Amino acid sequence: MYRIRMHGRGGQGMKTASRILGTAFFLEGFEVQDAPRYGAERRGAPMFAYVRADRKTIYERGIIVHPDLVVVSDDSLIAMATAGVLTGLTAETPLLICSNREASFYHERYDLKCQVIVFRLPPTTSSRSPRSSSCAGAAAALLGMISPHNLNQAVAQELHTLPSNLLKENQQAARTVFDKLQDFKGIVQRRAKMEIGRPQWLDLPLEVASIAAPIIHAPASSLQMNTGVWRTLRPTIDLEECIACGQCNTYCPDGAISLNTEGKPTIDYDHCKGCLICLAQCPAQAITAQPEQEEVS
Ligand code: SF4
Ligand code: SF4
Predict the structure, then answer these.
(1) Residue of 257, 270, 287 with the most ligand 1 atoms within 8 Å of its CB, for mutation
(2) Domain coverage including residue 278
(3) Of 184, 214, 238, which one is at a domain's C-terminal end?
(4) Residue 47 in contact with residue 10, Cβ under 8 Å?
(5) How many domains does one find in the chain?
(6) Cβ atoms within 10 A of the Cβ of 17, count?
(7) Side-chain half-sphere exposure of 80, counting CA atoms within 13 A
(8) CB of residue 243 inside a 6 A radius of ligand 2
């Protein structure tokens, strides 16, 4: 069985990438599972999708903790422990990253023992990036048993609602990346069958929730959740331009903006998710947004 985990941020199309890859496997005659995993969150939040493919019926369920291939569409997620990109990686698990950097950069920064392969997104004429098709095409190249024809068909099936020019651009992007990575064709090793033990019977005493889950019932536990790591755009307030109207404080859905005694705002970047509602509401246009800089750890 092949087990592939694909990491990205909400809105980057990794769910679609997993569907394209799953459909390509299916067209090759494999049994397939593909599913995304994310919470009730927003664009920019870490998410992943996974694909299982086998010639036999797949009985395994749940998220993939021991992947044969990990695909990353946004390298800022690697340093983020909660994104779990490196979970279950061994020296035999290729790490495929969509990036403009060199593979050696990741080896040095994260002390990786596995093979790292990087690929770039092909240039596009539209404002919609063919990221999902490119990631699926890159994964298909490394897997080595998906034909260009079936990859093309899979993109067409999964993106059939796109206008024909965008669909064509996605098909071309998938093929371009697929062709560029042919030096790595077939490097993904199928892991030996996983041992799944019989479940043991557990006796769970029944307790009221306030006793069984005291942490959930403790006050202010949401402060422990650093939602600032979801942010891809960072709002910045120019206090010279600010007229202290308080609108940003009122509209911020996360209560991440506080006002001082003069009514001037401060953003709590640990909990600002980067939705930019504050920017849209500011009557003085005192708030601007910049792409979030990757934190160097
Ligand atoms: S972008 Fe603005 S409105 Fe959105 S969470 Fe951050 S501070 Fe609040
Ligand atoms: S909405 Fe704009 S002008 Fe009003 S307090 Fe916030 S930053 Fe200042």
Answers:
(1) 257
(2) 226-291
(3) 184
(4) yes
(5) 2
(6) 31
(7) 22
(8) yes
| Two structure tokens written together for 223 | 């402060």
| Distance (Å) from CA 181 to ligand 2 centroid | 49
Domain check: are 174 and 236 in the same one? no
CATH number at residue 268: 3.30.70.20
Of ligand 2's listed atoms, the one at least distance from the Cα of 246 is 5
Burial (Cβ within 10 Å: 0-12, 13-18, ≥19) of residue 214: exposed
**pLDDT tens digit string along 187-223?**
998 876 666 667 777 777 777 777 777 666 677 777 8
Residue 74 is which amino acid?
D
| Tokens 């609108």 belong to residue | 247
Residue 141: both structure tokens together: 């190249």
Q: Which atom of ligand 1 is nearest to the CA of 257?
A: 7
Pairing of strands 265-267, 2-9: unpaired
Structure tokens at 206: 């029944």
pLDDT digits (tens, 9 = 90+) for 283-297: 999 999 998 865 433
Q: What is the CATH number of the domain that holds 62?
A: 3.40.920.10
d(Cα 286, Cα 239) in Å, to the nearest integer? 7
Strand 31-37 relative to strand 46-54, pairing: antiparallel
List Cα–Cα distances, 62 to 9, 150, 164, 250, in angstroms: 20, 27, 36, 41
